[in-house]
Structures are given as structure tokens and as C-alpha cells.
Design brief:
By secondary structure, this protein is α+β, with helices and mostly antiparallel strands. Helix content is 32%, strand content 17%. Keywords: Ribonucleoprotein, Ribosomal protein.
Length: 238
């Protein structure tokens, strides 16, 4: 829940000066109703509206080249980077807004902030989280414990809507898993057989090529020896 409070007295804020973002500070100085509260500094904006950025250890402003995933920047195009002015993460008097998160509740309720509770609109959807919420064992059926959302319309019969449970282990899911594993085993077996067959064929072809090469070499040798013998006989006749 968000709550905006304006403070005119700067002396109340002096406890936050020189503190960095993510630092936990006792909020007793903010007033009597804040007694016992502990807050965490989560950010803020200076008087020109530039946001504080975690990790920038300075009081002033710096211009950083920011891209997707960085805080204080939302890219408009894919892969876009932009140089933006951001403020350092150290708190000082030049801030106009300081964002605080309550870490520990104090003695009294703060009207409009801690005195009201907003119930969760939706229950958990993941099977393991439903088990955790209702402290169920693995043997219990999760489907009976799903938090249903009421849909009440005027002039119509009241009905409820349940979300689809994610990561629910059913016999069908286990069958799919077994089938996947069986298909994988079949593929590996087939690949091994094909590889062995290919290796056999390759060895056969290499053997045939070797024999052919040896035959060609032997043929060349016979021809060369025949030429040599004919040239010798011709020279002896002369």
C-alpha cells in the first residue's frame, strides 16, 4: 500500500541524511506516530524530478549510458541505449521525495497506512505454493484446495472461477514423461545402429578403394616392366 506524507520541518529528515539507498533507519524522528518503526530507504527524486539510482555513490547528478535492464530507464526500441541524468544514491537536503518501505512495525498504527489490510485478490496458482499455503503433503490432492474467485453478477446465478494449476503432477504428466524418455532411448539406439552401419559401409568402401588402388599400381608396374623388356630386346637386335 502506498502512502504520501509531507513534512515541512527539515530537522525531522536529518536522520536520513548521508544514508544510502537500501539502508534501514529508525523512523522515530518523523513524529510520535512513527515511534518504534524501522524503514528502508528505497529511492527518491530530487527537486527537478531526477530519480536516485542504486550504486551511484554521490550526492549530485551523473549522466549514465543506460540500456534494457537498468533502473531509471525504459527502452522504447529493441537494443536501444540512452544517456540519462540520474541522481546518486546518497540522501541529502536536495531531495523533494524520499521513498521509504516499512521493515518493522512500531507501537501505534499509522492512519491510512498500517491500520487497513488489503486482502490478496488471487490465490496461489503453482501446485507447490498451494501445498505450502495449506501445509499439505505430497499425497494430498491439491485440486481441492485451490482458492476460487467469486464471479457475482446481477440477475445471474453466483459462480466461482478456479485458476489452472501449474506444475501439477498427474498420471497424464507422468505418462508424457515416460513417453519422452522412451522416445529418447529409441533415438539413441537408432543413432547408434545407424552410426555402426555407416562405419561398416565406410570400412567396406575404404577396403574396395585400397584394393582398386593396389590393382592400378600393379597394372602400372606390369606395363612399365613390359616396356622395359621390349626396349631391351629392340636394342639387342640392333
Amino acid at each position: 500500500m502506498k502512502f504520501l506524507s509531507s513534512l515541512d520541518d527539515e530537522r525531522k529528515l536529518r536522520t536520513f541524511y548521508e544514508k544510502r539507498m537500501a539502508t534501514e533507519v529508525a523512523a522515530d524522528a518523523l513524529g510520535e506516530e512513527w515511534k518504534g518503526y524501522v524503514v528502508r530507504i528505497s529511492g527518491g527524486n530530487d527537486k527537478q524530478g531526477f530519480p536516485m539510482k542504486q550504486g551511484v555513490l554521490t550526492h549530485g547528478r551523473v549522466r549514465l549510458l543506460l540500456s534494457k535492464g537498468h533502473s531509471c530507464y525504459r527502452p522504447r526500441r529493441t537494443g536501444e541505449r540512452k544517456r540519462k541524468s540520474v541522481r546518486g544514491c546518497i540522501v541529502d537536503a536536495n531531495l523533494s521525495v524520499l521513498n521509504l518501505v516499512i521493515v518493522k512495525k512500531g507501537e501505534k498504527d499509522i492512519p491510512g497506512l498500517t491500520d487497513t489490510t488489503v486482502p490478496r485478490r488471487l490465490g496461489p496458482k503453482r501446485a507447490s505454493r498451494i501445498r505450502k499455503l495449506f501445509n499439505l503433503s505430497k499425497e494430498d490432492d491439491v485440486r481441492q484446495y485451490v482458492v476460487r474467485k467469486p464471479l457475482n453478477k446481477e440477475g445471474k446465478k453466483p459462480r466461482t472461477k478456479a485458476p489452472k494449476i501449474q506444475r501439477l503432477v498427474t498420471p497424464r504428466v507422468l505418462q508424457h514423461k515416460r513417453r519422452r524418455i522412451a522416445l529418447k532411448k529409441q533415438r539413441t539406439k537408432k543413432n547408434k545402429e545407424e552410426a555402426a552401419e555407416y562405419a561398416k559401409l565406410l570400412a567396406k568402401r575404404m577396403k574396395e578403394a585400397k584394393e582398386k588402388r593396389q590393382e592400378q599400381i600393379a597394372k602400372r608396374r606390369r606395363l612399365s616392366s613390359l616396356r622395359a623388356s621390349t626396349s631391351k630386346s629392340e636394342s639387342s637386335q640392333k
